[in-house]
Design goal:
Helix content is 52%, strand content 17%. It has helices at residues 2-9, 13-17, 22-33, 38-79, 104-111, 176-182, 218-221, 229-235, 256-267, 277-280, 282-320, 322-330, 335-371, 378-381, 392-409, 411-414, 422-425, and strands at residues 82-86, 100-101, 116-130, 135-143, 154-157, 172-175, 189-194, 203-208, 211-214, 224-228, 242-243, 245-250, 272-276. Helix 3 crosses helix 13 (335-371).
């Protein structure tokens, strides 16, 4: 068929004048006309394999990106992005016995930064929660009335403590994890025990549980409860303007390092220091960084599958069309043009496979985003369903990378064309 196409048009002067277009023309016609034979099966198989490879790469990147972003957002929702507190050798320990004085001017200066959403003081103090059936060690985070959580923190019951009390809110918000272990429900009352250094007698407070919170992060849910900052000031025998530090929430986590550096250099004085969540939760962020290795492994494996599949398919097609190659060579087509013809052919197969893979991946992406049909064990993965987050830059990079890699790796099989001798292949019909 292609021989007839070529011989019918070889006498056309316009075609001869555009020999650079000839390899693409033949590759395109060959792709569209091959039906009902072994070549058509090989083409379909190559397209399907490429589509699956691209879809898996896109979904793998979407899941890993979504997973990392979801975990970070859960941490940021509870602790913000930057903490301003006294310098400590162990950055992960926010509990200090020495308070700092709340500085309204410092807060105003930090809030003037364009990427800062809120700046709120906090106090952290260890305690023991006791109910008739059990007791549990806990870290209480004291927050002021103006403190706002993001939507990543789920609440069962009233989200706010009763800050209208004259001295302090006699309430505590436990996590669903702690409440389940203590068998406490919304509306129950618990006793808090505080031990002072050098004292054998605990200080006891009876608090009501108006709500339960849930982040899905075991490091937070298992260890922290929320209470009125005034309660901890009184327990610590601190003045009303004494705090542990400031929590800085940002509009965009991308500014976390910038905000920490600017606040430290421009606004604070020793011994105040700025800590990012990466420093406070170093092990967790290191673990999230390891997920990038998983992404690279998946991309490498699936890209290899796509390349090997196309290379084998192209080699089979070259062997099958040995007579055509011999005829084209005899009619004056040089090796470079024949090589470009098969490279164009591989590029067409790869492009269709990439397009189909994109459609498959995007369909699954939107179905998961809308219905969340792929579930997870929250106790293990910190979330109830598989999160997905895919950016246009990632899609473009994977598509272009796959196409370029496939075409470049096709150079090896097309070298087989050099070994085809027209005098041998044209003597057989």
């Amino acid at each position: 068929m292609l021989c007839a196409i070529f011989t019918q048009n070889i006498a056309n002067p316009a075609w001869i004048a555009s020999m650079n277009y000839l390899p693409f023309f033949i590759a395109n016609r060959y792709f569209r006309k091959r039906k009902g034979n072994f070549s058509a099966f090989i083409i379909r198989l190559s397209v399907v394999a490429t589509a699956i490879s691209v879809a898996v790469m896109l979904l793998a990147i979407a899941i890993i990106t979504g997973f990392k972003q979801e975990i970070r957002q859960k941490i940021f929702s509870f602790w913000g992005h930057v903490i301003v507190a006294d310098y400590a050798i162990n950055a992960s320990n926010l509990i200090t016995t020495s308070p700092i004085t709340y500085d309204l001017e410092l807060v105003k200066e930090i809030q003037q930064l364009p990427y800062v959403a809120q700046v709120t003081p906090f106090i952290v103090r260890p305690g023991i929660i006791r109910v008739p059936e059990a007791m549990e060690g806990i870290r209480l985070k004291g927050i002021p009335e103006q403190f706002q959580f993001t939507d990543k923190v789920e609440f069962i019951g009233s989200e706010k403590l009763n800050f209208q009390e004259a001295d302090y809110a006699k309430e505590i918000i436990l996590s669903t994890t702690t409440a389940a272990r203590l068998q406490v429900e919304v509306g129950d009352t618990v006793q808090l025990y505080f031990m002072d250094p050098g004292s054998m007698q605990p200080r006891i407070r009876k608090l009501r549980v108006p709500a339960l919170y849930h982040t899905g992060m075991d490091e937070i849910d298992r260890n922290y409860a929320l209470c009125d900052i005034r309660l901890l000031q009184r327990i610590n025998n601190w003045a009303p303007n004494h705090i542990n530090g400031y929590q800085v929430d940002l509009h965009d986590a991308a500014y976390m390092d910038t905000a920490a550096l600017v606040i430290f250099k421009e606004f604070t004085q020793p011994p105040l220091y700025t800590y990012t969540m990466r420093e406070l939760f170093g092990n967790l962020f290191d673990w999230l960084g390891l997920q990038d290795i998983n992404a690279k492994v998946v991309l490498l494996i699936m890209a290899s599958v796509a390349v090997i599949n196309l290379a084998v398919a192209l080699l089979i097609l070259i062997v099958e069309q040995a007579r055509l190659i011999g005829l084209l060579h005899a009619l004056g087509m040089n090796f470079r043009q024949m090589m470009m013809m098969f490279l164009y052919y591989a590029a067409i197969i790869a492009s269709i496979g990439i397009l189909a893979g994109n459609m498959l991946a995007v369909t699954i992406y939107f179905l998961q985003d809308k219905f969340g049909f792929i579930k997870l064990d929250e106790a293990t993965y910190y979330m109830k369903q598989v999160p997905m987050q895919l950016y246009p830059g990632q899609i473009i990079a994977i598509n272009l990378g796959t196409l370029i890699l496939c075409v470049l790796c096709m150079l090896l099989p097309v070298l087989y064309i050099r070994s085809i001798q027209p005098t041998k292949v044209l003597q057989f019909r």
